[in-house]
Amino acid sequence: MEYPARIRRSALLIASMSSFLTPFMGSSINVAAPLIQYEFSIDTVTLSWVATAYLLAAAMFLVPLGKIADIHGRKRIFKYGILIDTIASLLCAASISAPLLISFRFLQGFGDAMIFGTSIAILIVVYPFAQRGKVLGISTASTYIGLSVGPFFGGILAQNFGWRSIFVFIIVLDLIIMVALFSLLKGEWIGVKGEKLDSIGSVVYLFALLGVIFGFTLLPSPLALGLMGAGGIALLVFIIQESRTKFPVLDMSFFRHNVVFAFSNLAALINYSATFAVSLLMSLYLEAPVRGFSPEYAGLILVSQPVMMAVFSPLAGWISDRIEPRIVSSAGMAVTACGLYLLSFVGANTDLSYIIASLMFLGLGFAFFSSPNTNAVMSSVKRKYYGVASATLGTMRLVGQSLSLGIAIMFFALIIGTVLPNGPSYPALLIESMKLLFVTFAALCFIGIFASLARGRVRGKSPAQRGAPTKEANR
Fold first, then answer.
1. pLDDT one-digit tens code per residue, 205-217
2. DSSP class of residue 287?
3. Predicted structure pTM score
4. What is the distance, to the nearest Å, from the Cα of residue 234 to the centroid of all Cα atoms in its chain?
């Protein structure tokens, strides 16, 4: 079906605004993290949960909500997501303790799962295959513009009006998106009419991710091993359940028979596991008590990474329309690994030019990985599965981000422990943690290069082959 240009432009505008929203919020909160830590007098491990709770909720609910959106309407679920995000942002701004803030961030993650699982799916439906890489590049660029503006503008807000003002600004953005949604984007998109939600599979899936991710953040405690084991068992039960049910919440044939889909998602999981904690680590490093820069100045330094992402993502998407996406994204993964390794040499008095250059190199690598990888995932499934494919890729991103913070939390717990930022040993312990983390992340990203290269080709296939989750489609 050929959609009118007005509908295509409206979908691109709303998808781009929503792509801007969440990374802006995340990068802003990272810059404001030291202020939150100071106000509530919490250690670094507890502070990490302000971000982890949000990511955990989003990862848990994204696939089930993506399926619900495919059944009941993607625009409808997107609308509910914006509404919940608005309410949660208001509650976050009014939080009077760290436990309350962490709880409301979990609610915010639930609402944003509705946004993640629908906006890209709508965008992919209304644009023809030949333009997919371009519009994904624009949407991805919006993500990186949010990441670019977030540290600097979030730093200005936090420094002059307090960290709560960031959530107030998010409410304003939510209201703008809501107005655009109702006034510009007409119609509804339902991917699988007549299907039912696999409630049992959805519940098992929630507990599986909760056990694995939450348990991972508690390593190396014995409780962590128990939770991860229980989560692993639940994940096995989920796979069996989905293989037998008539209407699975996640079709396992995507992973069994669709090589491009499986390895592209694995590459995304590895890449986000290796990169997401960078902004939090650098925020803690640049501000007091380590380097002592203001949130505004620290944000200005951190902008160097996402600016490169925003500038080069459209180019990477355009290239992936002409060259196999796995070639482009694998090269991006390799550059990312080098950027992470460069950051492992950052010390107490490292020149800012070295830090900025390393962050720019990292941003360049991520730009050439992300949009081509998304193009490969969405080009490997049929149109009717766009919602689930988008939600699955989003889940890999969110699980990877959660694992990235989980790795950071584990190193913080082992090296920093309960030492507060006003402790005399805190700066040296933080830098030691950072060095080990960046080496670990670089090694993880290096492994990801091979996962990225292992996927099959997308270019040159017929429309039927591009979408079928069957063994024949990938031969």
1. 999 999 998 898 8
2. B
3. 0.85
4. 23
